[in-house]
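RETRY 2/3 - previous attempt timed out on the joint model. Re-submitting the same 614-residue input unchanged.
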Amino acid sequence: MELRQVTDTIWEIPRTGSMRVPGRIIADEKLLPKIREDKAHEQVANVACLPGIVGYSLAMPDAHWGYGFPIGGVAATDPEEGGVISPGGVGYDINCGVRLVTTTLRYEDIRDRVRDLVNALYHEIPAGVGSSGAIQKVRGADLKAVLEKGARWAVEQGFGSGADLEHTEEQGCLAGADAAAVSERAKTRGEDQLGTLGSGNHFAELGVVETLFDPVAANVFGLYPGGIVLIIHSGSRGLGYQVCDDYIQTMLRASAKYKITLPDKQLCCAPLNSPEGKQYFAAMAAAANYAWANRQIIMSLAIEAIQKTLGASPRELGARLLYDVCHNIAKLEEHEVNGIKRRLCVHRKGATRAFPASRMEVPTSYRTVGQPVLVPGDMGTGSYVCVGTEQSLRETFGSCCHGAGRLLSRTAARKSQSPNELLQELEARGVVVMARSKKTVTEESPDAYKDVDRVAEVADRAGIGKRVARIRPIGVVKG
Amino acid sequence: MPFRFLEHPADIRFECFGKNPQELFEAAAQALYAVALRSYRDSVEDSRDISLHADGWEELLVRWLQELLYLLDAERFVASHFDFKRICDNNLYVVAQGYSCEPTDREREVKAATYHGLHLTKDGEELRAELVLDL
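RETRY 2/3 succeeded.
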């Protein structure tokens, strides 16, 4: 498949066969070979075949092979022109996302307490496969409220405060959610998983702000060198997986009904304005709201655990939600295409919204700099806080990367190091790790991921997300 | 073992084999449990009736694994013995016997069995399927 270089960070897949638009990959000459080896570029071309797609089928710098969409894939469709919505373009973990909390603690304040803090987070945040929530089973009217109110429901139950909602994408509640569109099976899977981290690449992490790239934006975000932050990565748990699975069955039939021919079954879809499309959107939004409630609860548990361990009052800890972003979602957003404003359905599958200061969706407090973009790396290297740009709005429908992106398969990662060797190596690097599964530790080792520094640098150079600060991990809890 | 893991950059890809659809579906179940569980017991304490409909063998196989995942996640049920009462290209009825597992028995969270890269082929007397599990 031909890849034509447009700039030093943009590679184009010319439109061929049943592609409706060209593809574009944001990468440099060092990231591109792995993306090609993974065949992620072929998946970018497959996505370009979706009915109603506009502009380009896109892949972010952290892209790798997924199922249907590539991970790191972005596609916008126009519902007024038969544009589709595809559950495969959102993923099973609907509204998998990241939130970052700043504190007034400095590294020197807790240097000797990191192990105690990690231990407290490990015990206070339910994590691992099959874990049950911090709150009792949520059923019936309560679960309906979670699905339709999102993070606000958690705040009403005493988890965090209303100020957190202002710093959460969509204020923690995606409009159009309908609990009735969520199956009983999905509700059953979700009823005892609220307030649980999950396993795999999900984590709770303590980090220290190491480098500032943009001191002005860092100041607006409340980031300062040596400051301690908390990062949480989790999603909609079994409820979201079941919603996706239920609607893939629906969409397989809908694709046939609407005579949509696709190169990969996992891209099955329906026009957004069809009954099937509308119902999926309502269910997806409900699952997204569950995920926001989940992260709100986890954050609250984590803050409480830190306060208790340090014997600090809320005022002394000074915990403040910097921002919460989702990176597996489809959203209705206004974008300008060829000079015309259109309301598009933007799929971000392993990609983060990166809106500039000019957009009304950006919290008022960040309207001078832009939306914070959270890019977690692996557990031994670092993470980035970036900021959205006008260029990302023009070139990637306001999207940026969501992480480092995988480099090694799980099998290869397990072969490269034993769990104990890895834990010792991380300790030597100054990172305390506690995990429920040793296999997960090795499968999530730093070697399994691409170099987050390069991914963030390429995103910055491409102009889709400017680096604000780099964060070094010091303590990690994995499921 | 009637299954083998293949390379995949992020998730789990495997192939499984059987002389007939029953063996193939049982092999796929074993592969799923090998990924999801830390330990797998040959215990029979409980049972579930599994009845599924689909448009063809490939969809039936994915739905089969999705059903076992649901039982594992929502009911903590692990199937160790399968009695295939009926199986054809668009439906199956299976009585699955097994046990209730503890959270500590679980190793990885399998989000789903996907349709991506799904292949079902027949080579002589042997049926072969290739699947990707989302982790």
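The two ends of chain A are 39 Å apart (CA to CA). Closing ticket.
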